[in-house]
Amino acid sequence: MEVVILAAGQGTRMRPLTDAVAKPMLPVGDRPLCAHTADAAVRAGADELVFVVGYRAEDVREHFGDEYRGVPVQYVEQAERLGTAHAAAQARPHLDEDFVVLNGDDLYDAAALNALFDACPAVGAYEVDDPRPYGVFSIADDRVTDVVEKPADPPSDRVNVGAYHFPAAAAEWLTETELSERGEHEITDVLARVVDAFDVTVVPIERWLGVGRPWELLAANEWKLGELERRIEGDVRGDADLRGPVVVEASATVEPGVVIEGPALLREGAEVGPNAYVRGATLLGPDTKVGHGVEVKNTVVMAGTNVPHVSYVGDSVLGPDANLGAGTQVANLRHDGGDVETVVKGDRTTTGRRKFGTVVGPGAKTGINTSLYPGSVLPTDGRTRPGESYRGPESSSSDGT
Length: 401
What we know:
Blueprint: E1 2-7, E2 27-28, E3 31-32, H1 33-44, E4 48-53, H2 57-64, E5 67-68, E6 71-77, H3 84-89, E7 99-103, E8 106-108, H4 110-118, E9 122-127, E10 135-140, E11 143-149, E12 158-166, H5 170-173, H6 187-197, E13 201-204, E14 208-210, H7 214-225, E15 231-232, E16 235-236, E17 241-243, E18 246-248, E19 253-254, E20 259-261, E21 264-266, E22 271-272, E23 277-279, E24 282-284, E25 289-292, E26 295-297, E27 300-301, E28 306-309, E29 312-314, E30 317-318, E31 323-324, E32 329-330, E33 341-344, E34 347-350, E35 358-360, E36 365-366, E37 371-372, E38 376-378, E39 389-390
Parallel strand pairs: 1-4, 1-7, 4-6, 9-13, 15-18, 16-19, 17-20, 18-21, 19-22, 20-23, 21-24, 22-25, 23-26, 24-27, 25-28, 26-29, 27-30, 30-35, 31-36, 32-37, 35-38, 37-39
Antiparallel strand pairs: 2-3, 5-6, 7-12, 8-14, 9-12, 10-11, 33-34
Helix pairs in contact: 1-4
């Protein structure tokens, strides 16, 4: 069975992190985001993976190569971003039988994907409390009868999460969609034709996460790091205290006086300590450094980034090759206890999180004794002055502690 993984988007809502890394290749645990989907597809029975690539396509090609976990891999290019049906249609030359389409920037529970692969045609449906912001399924006798985009009066609480098992006939239909009102070729139009021609099974998705914004990348790591099993392969020195599910990969180093409370993952070449404290669902990427007297809590620190001296970073995402000056303090909680807000693509929005710190772009640096406000965003190659209290043009308007 061919499995089409959509991985072409620019990830503009994830900026500045995607200035340096394609969104599907952002780190979630010990692998890129879209590798979790690819792994689940292989386990479910994929005979071939077809990646639809575009922005920073070389990142995807370099990671997956011509064969991934024993399964052949093909790549097709979406030169223009004209919607999900347009993206999947680029794979048309590889689609001879029934096929599966998955979003490369979503996480799905593996058991549900197994069930999706076993049924055709079928769609994955996830139950939410408020379905109005989503595409919502009308369902009768466990069969889809319609899908409605962002309805004011939802027909059900089951929403579309971009997981489809299409019959062979739908491959041609991918190329025949009309432009929607928002100027895109929508894969839900293909689904509507499938619903008219076939009985479409609803496969319940027990756990799902769309990863489109920085705090969702944090949530994705909380999910996958929560599945860690303790493994110590690197160098743990002196009286360092590792508690619970902690993974220290080969060539990573933990100095004396360090306390790490799992789940935590130290990738190859990471260095921690001396006398540092790492806790919560924390990912320290390859060749990162957490220095003396630093506390890092529930944070993603991407490859090559340094947090070297007497700093605090909580509930944050630090892009690659950044550096926090000594004494940098990240505030992650509003004084009024409300959800932290930030700005995405120029619009202020809530993160839905009571605690959320900062997003530090690739190559950014803070001066010593910088304070970063909740929801602040330091852009790619951005700088702060020593002693600055940085709100940023994309920061929460509420003070933090």
